[in-house]
């Protein structure tokens, strides 16, 4: 949080406090000195944030900065042990441990950022129950190693990583149905689907015409589409045309069919698109945006005082597509949703542009479906949008019904279902609790709706109360996904973990209480929760699910068949201590297809197939079949072994591949 | 644990108990019926273990089986909530939570099995602080994406995964020095080194002539070598010769230099090699083994009643190498340590073959360095080897000074530093605590040294008390690394997590108490612990560490240079909100080398470099420089963005690569 070129030790708490105080004095001095001027170029760099002084003045941000900085300084450790007396909780810290053998109450699905995976946590214990590789390849599950997942990744662009941000659970009738989870890849503009029967990725779509699918949501209440925001404006199509003509760049909203995973249509907008959420009734999808300027450099992108949130009228867009009012690019119908489009001129515009303070970051629709909350990022406010009004007012600005001032760097908002909202403050490193109805009634910029603030450590992005995105939040626990952990854990080198903090909110009736710090491997962005009983995973495979697509190899079926001059098909069963055949012989240069079925039906008895020096690695759960194709390119003896310690004779459990030299 | 072809629901606790009882009755009936016969082929499949009845009878295993089965049944949940009243602890369960902002007491380094990574946990909280990719590629840290790590992985065989089992910390004067961690890759016969200043893998050696480097240890007290056991017997060299002449296969012990990471010498043995540990004085390294039969099928491998632990006399081996008594294969001197070798005929054999009951699994040397414990696996005993006697006795069997009977399926042993050993029982699903000196004094096969057993859930492999592998164990906490978790956590599909259970042993004075279940992504094998103050990681990069190897790119240095007809070098600094250049232009088909320095010096402010559709992904910690080379193969606009959310203007932080079409 200090200047990047500072030579002082910026990790020393006292030093940091001192720097803050100095910065604060500078800000106050500047403000005092320059108040009469309204258009000078004085700017403040604070935690990497370059704010024009006007933003501060307009929004009364000096007071905000004072509160924020004081709060931040107060949250710094005062002792050498890194503890913070104010936040370590009282004697009645709510119990979040789950005793041995007992189960957690909720599933939490965490995006893994550029690790490319989804993580499944138990709540409230915060234990990581498993990982689901999505855009990455992963050895423990053999994901990307068997032919099926390898081909899926190859067909989706053949990238080896992705950057997932926003996990979304499928809904039926407005409730999580436990069937699928959808998540974006910002890096390569993709959307993936995870099958929650098997906790396995089963489809990835490379969305045409967009770069950086960022915000993602399912269209409530019945998952009609997966909606994805194209964040980066590019030429359309991006084939070398208009390279340096940014005025011809564009951003698109994409609608992907949840079953076929095909991109059904796209909508072109002015500016760009950031985060998206769906109303509860299936009509409105609302996107934040930060580059109404349509600039290509940071100064330009944050130049104007106003940006526009885009509210997409989905049935109106569908109607335009049906009527053929689109151009087709790379096979996808693209509807013109820019402000000047004729589709926005009639009685029912397909996209409504709602003015907000500059560069708002997020959109979250509260449990009742009445309001969408748009956190200000570069404004210390949250803009409250009345969703019903979107279709009623002639000026979209009239759909704004409140704008409480909450603190510096508001990024995301979550809900307890009892009328309270909780907003993460990136710069203040706080979570702020506020009263929704009070905020609607209060004057714009009022801090009166604010109930309480709690320090978090440090720089929170998403904030999620358990089941806040449903119509029935739990209201007991809240997670602050903090981007920085700095000194909160034993040091582990220059790549620090994030810090997901568990905060007790007690149905919103109590004071917030910080209960646990939880280190998170970089870099979770968001999470979503479901009641334990909502998800019903299989504990072994149901072979009916792949009947016709893959064989089920029994012990009797095990054997080698030559399928060509340079190709063989090896089939093998596997069970504890034993592969279906103890050896097989192939010739140097053969392409080997190896099909293996785990014939056991006992839960948790998984078997692996590893072949040294051939990069072969399968993980096969009970009743599952996996297949891999590789080349036996060097003569020699290669022992096939099981990577899952499955029995007391696990080490002796092997098969031998003999690769004969070709004459 | 039920028959693999059973159609009953094997996950129903009551059903499992019933099955166990049926199996037990069968065993007892068989034993009664056949006691007079001593060499029949009746075998028992129990948890995948095929034991000849003779093993049971000889070792009095019927009683063991009864204890074991009863223990196992007793450990099953009796209620629907999966809880186990006997094990959930008393009111004074020791506190293992670490309050927010406080630090753990110990680092725990976990092998990640076929995930290919090392995991770093805080103890006692069991929180995962970070992961260190080793044999895998990994997006969050950009490991395998920058040229340096990509080339390291390529030169080490170009495999995309590995199977790491045994993490070892470097020692100076018999104490952990906090400098390096070494770990094996069983899949491809490799050994890797992790630099603990940066928590990053900095070297990988593909060990010649061996398949499946399994057991691994450093030679105490000064890390003279990293020793690795070649587990799978293969032809030497494995080039197509002797394909189906197993009598010519061999296993090798390899000694790798900890600095150069070169393989210095190897030792050929009879049978194979499994786990290894070093004595405390630098002379002896002791390996378990399970295939004295030199068979290639499971029945043959577990046919004989005896196997041989191999004790390697390191100075004697070094002397043989110095005297030129070796053959060289693939550049490595190989010393003949087989029983018939002349090097084993003189006064000072280089390898001593110590007979033990069949197929022993592990070797762990206790803190005083007096004894090596060899758990029986297929024998219900632990063999105690007096290390000093190895150099004194003429018959190596005389170095065995105790053989307590501990239970079914003993795999590994750990220590509290107060005279107690704790052995994991794979089949019994228990940890057994026993008295070392009592075991030395007791008659062979006595259960008298056994103090206490505790159920674990389920099927433990390694067991580690904190710092048990040092001369000064902590003695407070013990971890049981259980291979199966079955019903212990919310279900997450057919690939179950392991269950690392935290057990309080209270200096060995109290009863063992199960404190926490901890789900572990497949499949940790082992772990090692260090006091927090032993490890001193850097929190930002020290650029002196790469001076001369990589440039440090300042804002001023940022720019594009054409280096050839089809190649360019792009240099850029990066700091919060800003790359050193906001755009650069290349031509279609150019090979682009991109060198980026994070010029900040603030802890935890990491920056990423992601280029959509080019699979480019760097993670750059403060003061670090990373380089990547890729081809710009399609014309278009590609936005470069930061994958670490680093400031409030993080989303606006971008650079643009314009790829011009080539005429």
UniProtKB/TrEMBL annotation, chains A, B:
PANTHER family: CYTOCHROME C OXIDASE SUBUNIT II, NITROUS-OXIDE REDUCTASE. Pathway: Nitrogen metabolism; nitrate reduction (denitrification); dinitrogen from nitrate: step 4/4. Homodimer. It catalyses: N2 + 2 Fe(III)-[cytochrome c] + H2O = nitrous oxide + 2 Fe(II)-[cytochrome c] + 2 H(+). It is found in: Periplasm. It comes from Halogranum gelatinilyticum. It comes from the Archaea. The keyword Oxidoreductase applies. Its EC number is 1.7.2.4. GO terms for biological process: denitrification pathway. Nitrous-oxide reductase is part of a bacterial respiratory system which is activated under anaerobic conditions in the presence of nitrate or nitrous oxide. Residues 81-105 are annotated as: Disordered. Its cofactor is Cu cation; Ca(2+). This is Nitrous-oxide reductase. One of its GO terms (molecular function) is nitrous-oxide reductase activity. Residues 563-663 form the Cytochrome oxidase subunit II copper A binding domain. GO terms for cellular component: membrane; periplasmic space. Pfam families: COX2, nos_propeller, nos_propeller_2, TAT_signal. Residues 93-105 have a biased composition (Basic and acidic residues). Keywords: Calcium, Copper, Metal-binding, Oxidoreductase, Periplasm, Signal. InterPro entries: CcO_II-like_C (IPR002429), Copper_CuA (IPR001505), Cupredoxin (IPR008972), N2O_reductase_N (IPR011045), NO_Rdtase (IPR023644), Nos_propeller (IPR041114), NOS_propeller_2 (IPR041142), NosZ/Cyto_c_oxidase_sub2 (IPR051403). In the C-terminal section; belongs to the cytochrome c oxidase subunit 2 family.
């Amino acid at each position: 949080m200090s200047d990047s070129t500072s030579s002082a030790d910026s990790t020393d708490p006292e030093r940091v406090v001192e720097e803050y105080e100095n910065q604060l004095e500078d800000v106050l001095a500047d403000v005092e000195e320059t108040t009469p001027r309204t258009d000078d170029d004085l700017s403040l760099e604070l935690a990497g944030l370059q704010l024009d002084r006007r933003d501060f003045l307009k929004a009364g941000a000096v007071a905000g900065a004072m509160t924020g900085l004081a709060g931040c300084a107060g949250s710094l450790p005062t002792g050498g042990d890194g503890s913070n007396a104010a936040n370590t909780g009282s004697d009645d810290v709510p119990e979040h441990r789950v005793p041995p053998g007992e189960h957690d109450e909720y599933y939490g699905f965490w995006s893994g950022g550029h690790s490319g995976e989804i993580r499944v946590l138990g709540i409230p214990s915060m234990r990581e129950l498993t990982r689901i590789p999505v855009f990455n390849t992963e050895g423990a599950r053999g994901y990307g190693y068997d032919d099926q997942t390898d081909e899926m990744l190859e067909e989706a662009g053949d990238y080896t990583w992705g950057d997932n941000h926003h996990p979304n659970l499928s809904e039926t009738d407005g409730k999580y149905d436990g069937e699928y989870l959808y998540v974006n890849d910002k890096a390569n503009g993709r959307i993936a689907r995870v099958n929650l029967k098997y906790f396995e990725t089963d489809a990835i779509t490379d969305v045409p015409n967009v770069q950086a699918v960022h915000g993602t949501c399912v269209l409530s209440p019945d998952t009609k589409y997966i909606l994805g925001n194209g964040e980066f404006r590019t030429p359309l199509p991006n084939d070398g045309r208009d390279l340096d003509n940014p005025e011809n760049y564009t951003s698109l909203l994409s609608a992907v069919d949840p079953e076929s995973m095909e991109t059904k249509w796209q909508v072109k907008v002015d500016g760009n698109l950031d985060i998206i959420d769906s109303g509860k009734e299936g009509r409105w999808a609302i996107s934040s945006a930060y580059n109404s300027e349509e600039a290509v450099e940071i100064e330009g992108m944050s130049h104007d005082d106003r940006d526009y949130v885009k509210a997409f009228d989905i049935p109106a867009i569908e109607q335009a597509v049906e009527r053929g009012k689109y151009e087709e690019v790379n096979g996808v119908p693209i509807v013109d949703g820019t402000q000047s489009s004729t589709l926005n001129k009639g009685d029912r515009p397909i996209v409504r542009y709602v003015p907000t303070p500059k560069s708002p970051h997020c959109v979250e629709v509260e449990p009742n479906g009445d309001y969408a909350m748009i956190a200000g990022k570069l404004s210390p406010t949250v803009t409250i949008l009345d969703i019903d009004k979107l279709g009623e007012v002639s000026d979209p600005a009239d759909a704004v019904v409140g704008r409480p001032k909450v603190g510096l760097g508001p990024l995301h908002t979550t809900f307890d279902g009892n009328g309270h909202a909780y907003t993460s403050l990136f710069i203040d490193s706080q979570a702020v609790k506020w009263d929704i109805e009070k905020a609607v009634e209060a004057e714009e910029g009022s801090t009166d709706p604010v109930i309480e603030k709690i320090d978090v450590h440090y720089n929170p992005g998403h904030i999620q109360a358990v089941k806040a995105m449903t119509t029935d939040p739990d209201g007991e626990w809240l997670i602050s996904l903090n981007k920085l952990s700095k000194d909160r854990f034993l040091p582990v080198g220059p790549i620090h973990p994030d810090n997901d903090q568990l905060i007790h909110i007690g149905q919103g009736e109590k004071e917030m209480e910080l209960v646990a710090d939880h280190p998170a491997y970089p870099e979770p962005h968001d999470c979503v929760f479901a009641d334990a009983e909502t998800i019903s995973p299989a504990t072994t495979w149901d072979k009916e699910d792949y009947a016709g697509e893959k064989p089920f190899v029994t012990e009797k079926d095990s054997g080698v068949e030559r399928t060509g001059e340079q190709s063989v098909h090896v089939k093998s069963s596997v069970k504890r201590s034993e592969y279906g055949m103890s050896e097989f012989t192939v010739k140097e240069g053969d392409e080997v297809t190896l099909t293996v079925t785990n014939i056991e039906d006992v839960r948790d008895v998984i078997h692996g197939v590893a072949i040294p020096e051939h990069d072969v690695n399968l993980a096969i759960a009970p009743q599952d079949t996996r297949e891999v194709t590789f080349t036996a390119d060097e003569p020699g003896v290669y022992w096939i072994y099981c990577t899952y310690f499955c029995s007391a004779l696990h080490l002796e459990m092997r098969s031998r591949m003999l690769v004969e030299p070709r004459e």
